[in-house]
Write a structure and sequence with these properties.
The protein has 662 residues and is an alpha+beta fold. The strands form five sheets. Strands 11, 12, 13, 14, 15, 16, 17 and 18 form an eight-stranded mixed sheet that branches. Strands 1-10-9-8 form a four-stranded mixed sheet, sandwiched between helices.
Length: 662
């Protein structure tokens, strides 16, 4: 186990990182510069094993106990217990990394991918995605079989497996707590509770569960408590193990909502009531793992949940992929999870992450774009990594990077021709191909809409000159609509002569700074001044959702293959939820609602294409690129396959005691 300590420049550990680099790498990449020393200190703190004395005071820990029945976050008892777990003969410990601190671990409050990747391991949704099947295939998770679905897609009946239990918690008073249909109903109802303020409510509002909107309105009227005990026809328990969902309209893809832990992960009502506002730091679920330690901005540790006994490895390989067929033969029937403990280092900067992997301190990670030329030069695994048995995985991400305007902002928002011209000029002035080439090592493709590749409803043939880099057209458009330089200082002013400054909310990591430098250069070339307001990732999300940012660059990741999730980013009623741009266009909204009722096929794709064309005309967001993910795994990792809709992929992995044997 690694222990928490400050690593001085030139130490043994420092030399170990240097030796891990490929021969011929420039010495300055591993020299003991101040930046290098800061990076190594970050690695030392973040990768500190839970067996070491706590490096942070209790005030820095996550709120509330780590998990009921588990070791508390602080104190020597926690350290001793964690050390015993780590030293247990034959225990398997997987070391991963998080790029930032989770915002919270309450499923109903999760809106960021970092939190989702942890929550997905702590809680269970009724359904899941087969880890190997392509295209994505739904499978029962806590259900006994796939749900019963009516021919008109308005009634769905789910039946749970009996005998599934929550992780231990003092509120259960030492008694096993079985998962029931009432828990599943309660968990979805929480999204409608105004006091929960769930950022994911929009997804269930869109399907119009019978009676749920009225239940929420009654709670909003007079600020009354939400009535969880009131039965509604659209969401109710039929008996101990069966619950029913009914909708006002056909919802052909509703089942995907029940494969997303952030929407339908089951929580126990008595735990939520006991924890109150501390529930985001006190996760108690039926998932394969439970939380044992969370030191904010340093590390987060999960341990196998002994109550999780309802799943075995039973994935469906593609017959055309021999390596997946062999993997299935090796792991089929094994009880999940196979790994005893997962230790996440929280490392925001990309260089320390890369160095930690090279030193063998991380088992698996997505390779930051700026290090891909070292890891996969020419698209092939570097010889020095191949010689160590490192595994390479590459797959397109269901992700879109884009610029997001605040449509309520008096400068960049609005629907008047002048404001539309400004946004479209910014789109034309953004050099996406150069960004892909320089910063992403070519591992991305130009985006022409918000819809990511592989999503249902996406028209792969859609192309638009509105997002093609053309600074001359951008300057001409600005001139035409009065965004001109009136005082000769090289910067354009507003049509009324007032100063024009683009205020951008942004992070502070090295990769973000590099993106901002190129973006600022592009805007300077068309005469637009920028100012960056640096915030941490959690604060940026909150400010963006509340309409308090003028402009930001961000990304949207799909937890589901349904393109509705992406087009909902621009759906007017989702403003303040997924629609951070606060775009409200009735014509777009009508198309979004229409496609949601349609089964997959050419007719639905045509409706989605028209909606995307409208978004390009008004440009509330500027679609930039769709990335390709590149992952490296150490030789001992068994069974990793990229799956864009499975956050807690490690629930399917094993660790080989013999490097190279897997």
């Amino acid at each position: 186990m690694l222990r928490a300590r400050t690593v001085p420049a030139g130490s043994t550990r420092d030399r170990r990182h240097a030796q891990a680099l490929a021969p011929g790498h420039r010495a300055r990449a591993v020299s003991a510069s101040p930046t290098r020393r800061r990076a190594l200190r970050a690695i030392g703190a973040a990768l500190a094993g839970a067996a070491a004395p706590a490096a942070a005071p209790a005030a820095a820990q996550a709120p509330g106990p780590a998990n009921a029945g588990n070791v508390a976050n602080d104190g020597n008892a926690a350290d001793a217990a964690n050390a015993a777990i780590a030293r247990a003969p034959g225990s398997k410990v997987l070391r991963l990394v998080l790029p930032n601190n989770p915002v919270g671990l309450d499923p109903a409050g999760v809106a960021d991918t970092t939190s989702a990747s942890v929550v997905d391991a702590l809680f269970d949704a009724p359904l899941r995605y087969d880890y190997l099947a392509q295209p994505a295939q739904l499978r029962p998770n806590t259900l006994a079989e796939m749900p019963e679905v009516s021919a008109d897609f308005t009634r769905f009946v789910f039946r749970l497996q009996p005998g599934i239990h929550f992780a231990d918690d003092p509120v259960f008073q030492g008694r096993p707590r079985e998962l029931t249909a009432a828990d599943c109903v309660y968990s979805v109802k929480r999204l409608f509770d105004p006091k929960v303020r769930s950022p994911n409510l929009f997804q269930f509002e869109a399907v119009r569960l019978l009676g749920m909107d009225a239940l929420r309105r009654d709670a909003l009227a007079g600020d009354r408590p939400f009535d969880y005990d009131r039965e509604v026809p659209g969401l109710r328990a039929l008996d101990r193990y069966r619950f029913e969902v009914r909708t006002q309209q056909p919802v052909p893809r509703l089942l995907h909502l029940f494969a997303n832990v952030s929407l339908s992960g089951a929580v126990a009502r008595e735990v939520v009531q006991a924890q109150g506002t501390d529930i985001a730091g006190h996760p108690v679920g039926t998932g394969p793992y439970r939380l044992v330690q969370w030191v904010r901005n340093q590390r987060l540790v999960l341990e196998r949940n002994p109550k999780h006994r309802h799943r075995v490895w039973d994935e469906t390989p593609d017959p055309s992929r021999p390596e997946d067929v062999a993997l299935a033969a090796r792991l089929r029937g094994r009880s999940l999870p196979m790994i005893d403990r997962v230790e996440f280092a929280i490392i925001e900067e990309t260089q320390p992450r890369w160095l930690a992997f090279l030193a063998g301190d991380l088992d698996l990670m997505a390779i930051p774009f700026q290090f891909q030329t070292q890891a996969v030069p020419g698209g092939r695994l570097a010889p020095y990594l191949a010689a160590r048995g490192v595994q390479l995985h590459r797959a397109p991400l269901a992700q879109t990077m884009y610029l997001q305007f605040n449509m309520d902002d008096p400068l960049v928002g609005g629907y008047a021709p002048q404001q539309v011209a400004l946004r479209r000029a910014i789109a034309l002035g953004y050099d996406t191909p150069r960004m892909i080439e320089i910063l992403l090592n070519g591992q991305a493709v130009q985006a022409h809409s918000i819809l990511a590749p592989g999503l249902s409803g996406r028209d792969d043939a859609l192309r638009s000159d509105a997002v093609r880099y053309d600074p001359a057209r951008a300057r001409a458009l600005l001139d035409l609509y009065g965004w001109v330089d009136r005082d000769g200082d090289g910067w354009r002013e507003r049509p009324d002569g007032q100063p024009l400054v683009l205020e951008v909310g942004t992070g502070s990591t090295q990769s973000v700074r590099q993106i901002n430098e190129l973006w600022q250069r592009d805007m300077r070339a068309i005469g637009l001044r920028m100012r960056f307001d640096i915030k941490d990732s959690g604060e940026l999300i909150k400010l963006s959702r509340n309409g308090r940012l003028m402009l930001r660059q961000t990304a949207w990741n799909a937890p589901t293959p349904d393109g509705t999730y992406f087009s909902g980013v621009l759906y007017g009623p989702n403003s303040g939820q997924s629609n951070h741009a606060r775009f409200k266009l009735p014509a777009f909204d009508a198309l979004h609602e229409r496609q949601a009722l349609m089964p997959d096929g050419p007719e639905r794709t045509a409706v989605m294409r028209e909606a995307m064309r409208l978004s390009l005309a008004y440009m509330p967001i500027v679609p930039l690129m769709h990335s390709v993910g590149v992952w490296l795994a150490q030789p001992r990792v068994v069974g990793y396959r990229p799956h864009v809709f499975t956050r807690a992929f490690f629930r399917y992995l094993d660790l080989d005691p013999e490097p190279g044997a897997g």
